[in-house]
Amino acid sequence: MSGFSVWAPYAGQVEIEIGGKRYRMRPGRAPGWWRAEVPEARHGTDYVFRLDGGEPLPDPRSPWQPHGVHGPSRFVDHSAFPWTDRGWTGRPLPGGVVYELHIGTFTPEGTFDAAIGRLDHLVDLGVTHVEVMPVNAFPGRHGWGYDGVGLWAVHDPYGGPDGFKRFVDACHGRGLAVILDVVYNHLGPGGNYLARFGPYFTDRGHTPWGPAVNLEGSDEVRRFVVENALYWLREYHVDGLRLDAVHALVDTRRLLEELVVQVEALATAQNRPLTLIAESDPSDPRLVTPREAGGYGLHAQWSDDFHHALRSLLTGERHGYHGDCEPLPALAKALTGGHDASTFRARRHGRPVDTRTTPAHRFVCYLQNHDQVGNRAAGDRLSATLRPEPPKIGAALLLTAPFTPMLFMGEEWAASTPWQYFTDHPEPELAQAVREGRRAESAGWDPTAVPDPQDERTFQRSKLDWREKDRDEHAAVLRWYRRLIALRRRYPQLADPWLDRVHVVYDEESRWLVVSRGRLRVAVNLSPEPRKIPLDAIPVGVCAVSVPGFVFDRWGIRLAPESVAVVETLG
Structure pTM? Predict the structure, then answer.
């Protein structure tokens, strides 16, 4: 016998239908809740709800939508899965290396089981945490996952609930922690039935992607979100959550504080670290300031400042938010915890980090990620527009920085495949609206360079080509990434999170900079000419270098054009 419940405060009568047979649900103890016991329901049973005798609707908390987001829900007995990770004690984020991937394009097959076959590559690379883009149910076969509507269901084309559990179990078996990307600020427009059941949305706020979730006006809606977060951590054994665009949440502080309290309690009960990472456009360090000090208490947040400065430095791009900064001063400021005013946003952006109290491992930084690649009109990667040297310089600066580094899938071998914006909306009007919206967002670009999101070829082009990683030029980049990650482990000062111990000097005219990390110096020559760079300490050896052509003298190093060296010194 299985029990079913649903929150439907708008309904005067609720029925659950299984195999064509309807069962009346009784009012529950809490207002708006309905309950029913169905003797014949088992793991794998399909069901729908009917409100006041209306059309069949999927469960707002459906654990599985095997027939798509418009079809019936399927009951899942989570206790039936044969987990093998009982000895898993988790991995803390500090000192880690994160790898962001999208299940649908990480492998040609685009499934959890196929992704399992590539996990040994991540272990060999030196990754500690796998950050998986949203896997909750969304319309169509393929998409980024940020227009999900079945927040409790695993996207069936990826492999459904058991497929995701196999993936997490396999990660844990290899010592990899799993962070899941979740979206609580909005739901997608296709297949969204929540408003039929209750006041899930509010007109007090509106996100760029649709109506805001009614977190401020309904305790039950906020409970829906908090329990969903705990559900992924508990039933799927994931080790952390990346919270999408928390700046677009209504009642941000109350929700995030409640999430932190509940997740910390679960971490204590399960005796393993559980991590909450925020994405926030304002880049406010209060998100990661402890609650005792007046902050929100999250464990980490994405930080775009480092990316913007580094990409502008390497590429010379100065449009959009890349036009906010002079690259070398901006990179120096980002490496030491500062922020600038933003001409792109027409306001001051971010707040300075208190370098005495806020460790840098709370900021997840990157050279590339799904946003910074996929939101470009053509979805072109850094490696697609540059010679090999600048991306290798970028990798060295990222992987020797005090932050928690994150790589985007394929970056480690300079993948030539783009990663574009793709959707599969079955509704013609919605599909056309997405096409037009994408063109509008890419205004200023050559219209012929903007792929049609609904075209199957856009999705297929975005899949990684794993054959590349063994080819000469790509294999050399892969060896470089492996060497840098190993270097990060070998020298504890590279993972030292205290920003006030990071020192940066640079010469804008000569285009060089040096980052000091304890006894290590990261010397970079961005000029097309050789440069002699002072090191302020006596060099005793080179730990890693991207291209040959360096010469030591007593107080410095002569670097070849567009090269980087990580140098160990006597002081």
Answer: 0.95
